[in-house]
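Lab notebook, bench 4. The sequencing result for the construct came back, and we need a structural model before the next group meeting so we can plan mutations. Quick request posted to the team channel:

Model the 3D structure of this chain.
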Amino acid sequence: MRKTLASIALAASVGLTPAWAGAACLAEYKAKRDNPLELIYDITPIRGACTRENAEAQLQAQLAEQGRTLLKVLSVRQE
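Done. Here's the predicted structure in token form:
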């Protein structure tokens, strides 16, 4: 019984992990949207080189599609 409960708990926790949990590089950033003003803080996976420059380029393009503006990349870290 104990083994079954452990298996169920493990399966449930795996299903609740964020999509980026296995990502190699994560960028932490701030962004905004105007009218109405919305401030955004998020962490997202980055493809390619794990550098601030690469993160800025990817985030600017991705956020522009959503009507948002990148304010600052706070950190880039290898996971």
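The radius of gyration is 17 Å.
Will bring this to the meeting.
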